[in-house]
Design brief:
Chain B: This is SpoIIM. The structure holds 2 protein chains of 2 kinds. Helix content of chain A is 56%, strand content 5%. Chain A contains 11 helices and 4 strands. In chain A, the strands form 2 sheets. Chain A has a two-stranded antiparallel ribbon with strand order 1-2. Chain A starts with 13 loop residues before the first strand and ends in a 12-residue tail after the last helix. Chain B is mainly alpha-helical. In chain B, helix 2 packs antiparallel against helix 3, helix 9 packs parallel to helix 11 and helix 11 packs parallel to helix 13. At the A-B interface, helix 2, helix 4, helix 5, helix 7 and helix 9 of A face helix 1, helix 2, helix 3, helix 4 and helix 9 of B.
Chain lengths: 285, 339
């Protein structure tokens, strides 16, 4: 019954994820844009660390010519390139700084804990997703236009791996596929204020006819409008409701909508308690 | 939990619900935030005891809210809080030390052992390619220049004299040994990781990389052998090569496992087969990187300081025996199947 509304959204990103306690958490997959953004942030961070490291090592090398510095740089570079993602993702948040900023985390698809093997697998695969196309591009630049057909073939072949997340329902990278992981939205969010708090009510009352206009979908849209608090939206919605319900304009749009929200919410929730869920305004009462 | 009295006259279920359970959610959020920022050790004993109770209370709040409340902000909040709590309670693995112990004692050898068929195939492929490379260059030295890149040959080509070749085997370089070792390690490890990742493309590129590696090996032997330096080259190669080539062979085997699992999943679904193969192979790959670090040390430092053939063979043979014993020692329990 709960699912009636979901089919109308854009692509459905919710995935069933049942905890051992038997509650479905309905994880939401990370969007492609968010994931690309997270990756760009991580790459920038890696480059920044690399630059800082190189400058530090360079300055130290000017002061004291030591073999140790070259080793530190070589190992540091290797660790940055291969270890950045792995080390962050094995941490308690399961996310690199970029993913954290975009509100994402890595999760094992089967709900088990994220093992080191899985994290290494998903990140080692980046070699063919990213560095393979890059090295083909570099190779082409080095050799000029010689063998353009081969280059084209190589690029489209490696492009399959690069654009893999665009071709499947679950937004899996090749690495995710092999490691059995996926990336979900995990941004902490604060509990929004209680719209129906009793001290905010002004005491308008509504007739049954006025409250029968809408269902759950409209109620939750109204909730979004109230939480956003944008004046034009509030005015438009208030005017529409007044027109439909045939109520006079009393000049206080926001207060009117809040009272209407409370009354409608109370009415629909009492319906829920006896098993009537009115999905939207088209559903019968 | 002390449930405060319902706010008088709250019409809406969600308001009463928030008032009754809000404190528990706040508490859980604080604990989860603490675990995310630091670790579970940041919690006091009291908090630890309370954690599962708060978690279950919140999950149950979520179930109730979904069925009785139309406050979307409330349901969304409870969903993300439950999810964060779930991953803190069930997600993070054991402590770092326990993980390391498990890896060295069990997971690494088990993963390598599980790859034995692929390892054998990769080894045979490398040896065959080495034989082909040897025969090719012996019959027509021109092949050498096609197989080995100029900068890698570094003067060691078919036109070099026996004296010059001998010098490349026993000269101890220009002193920057440790740097050289670090460079070799990072380079080889990167190639090995690439070899593993390429396995996903149905293992074909991995096989090509292994073949090429073998060809180069054979070509070098074809240069040194006619000058009577084959045993010396073997000793030069053995000291680090037993570890390095073994590691590369395992990396190839890991790639094969992924490629074959994707191509021929058997009874499992293609996805499941890929996941099982991926995790197993990745565990072996962590080991490969460690092996290459050892090989880098042996090559960069050991080979340059140890210049007697006997000692080189001894060191190389001992490390090989060590690896074989570690991975395939009979009597290792079969009760921990890898994966």
């Amino acid at each position: 019954m709960r699912r009636t509304r979901r089919a109308k959204g854009p692509a459905d990103l919710r995935r069933s994820f049942v905890t051992p306690e038997g509650v479905d958490l309905r994880l939401e997959l990370g969007g492609r844009g968010a994931r690309a953004g997270a990756f760009v942030i991580d790459v920038l961070a890696i480059v920044a660390v690399l630059i800082v490291m190189s400058v530090t090592v360079g300055l130290l090398a000017l002061a004291a010519r030591s073999e140790l510095l070259a080793i530190i740089w070589l190992l540091g570079f290797f660790l940055l390139r291969n270890g950045w993602f792995v080390l962050w993702e094995t941490g308690p948040r399961g996310a690199t700084p970029g993913k954290r900023l975009m509100g994402l985390r890595v999760v094992a698809r089967d709900g088990a804990r994220l093992t080191g093997g899985a994290v290494v697998a998903r990140n080692a695969m980046r070699e063919i997703e990213l560095f393979l196309p890059l090295s083909f591009l570099a190779g082409q630049a080095a050799q000029g236009t010689a063998g353009w057909f081969l280059t084209l073939f190589a690029l489209s072949w490696s492009g399959i791996f690069l654009f893999f997340p665009l071709f499947n329902r679950d937004r899996l990278r090749v690495g995710d596929l092999v490691a059995g992981t996926w990336v979900v939205r995990a941004a902490p969010r604060a509990l929004g204020a209680d719209l129906a708090a009793s001290d905010r009510r002004r005491g308008r009352t509504f007739s049954d006819a006025a409250l029968e206009l809408y269902g759950v979908y409209e109620l939750q849209t109204l909730e979004d409008v109230l939480r956003d608090g944008q004046n034009e939206a509030v005015a438009t919605v208030a005017a529409t409701i007044r027109r439909k319900a045939g109520l006079p304009d009393d000049g206080d749009d926001y207060g009117f909508l809040q009272d209407y929200y409370n009354a409608l919410c109370a009415r629909l929730e009492s319906g829920l308690l006896v098993g009537r869920r009115r999905a939207d305004k088209y559903a019968g009462t | 939990m002390n449930a405060p009295a319902f706010p008088s006259g709250a019409l809406v279920n969600a308001s009463r619900f928030r008032a009754a359970h809000g404190p528990a959610w706040d508490q859980l959020e604080r604990l989860v935030g603490l675990m995310e920022r630091r670790s579970v050790r940041a919690l006091s004993d009291d908090d630890l005891l309370k954690l599962p109770l708060l978690y279950r209370a919140t999950l149950s709040s979520l179930s109730v809210a979904r069925e009785t409340s139309l406050d979307r902000a409330l349901v969304g909040y409870l969903e993300q809080l439950s999810m964060r709590a779930y991953f803190q309670l069930y997600g993070p693995p054991a402590t770092g030390w326990a993980q390391l112990r498990g890896f060295f004692a069990r997971e690494w050898p088990a993963a390598v052992r599980a790859l034995w068929r692929e390892t054998l195939a990769a080894l045979v492929l490398t040896l065959l390619a080495a034989l082909v490379g040897y025969l090719l260059v012996r019959d027509d030295p021109a092949w050498f220049y096609r197989v080995i890149p100029q900068e890698l040959a570094n003067g060691r080509d078919p036109t070099a004299s026996a004296v010059a070749l001998r010098r490349t085997l026993y000269d101890s370089g220009d002193g920057a040994l440790a740097t050289f070792a670090a460079y070799l390690f990072t380079h080889n490890a990167q190639v090995a990781i690439g070899c593993f990742a390429l396995g996903f493309a149905f293992a074909a590129p991995t096989a090509l990389l292994l073949l090429y590696n073998g060809l180069m090996l054979g070509a070098f032997f074809a240069v040194f052998a006619p000058k009577g330096l084959a045993p010396n080259l073997l000793a030069w190669l053995t000291i680090h090569g037993t570890t390095e080539i073994f590691a590369i062979v395992i990396a190839g085997a890991a790639g094969f496992r992924i490629g074959t699992a994707v191509a021929f999943p058997g009874r499992a679904s293609r996805m499941d087969a890929a996941v099982a193969a991926g995790r197993l192979a990745a565990t072996a790959m962590i080991g490969v990187v460690l092996m290459l670090a050892v090989a880098g040390l042996l090559e960069g430092i050991g080979r340059q300081t140890v210049t007697s053939d006997g000692a080189r063979l001894l060191i190389g043979g001992t490390t090989l025996a060590g690896w074989l014993l570690y991975f395939y020692r009979p009597g290792r329990d079969a009760s921990h199947p890898p994966r």
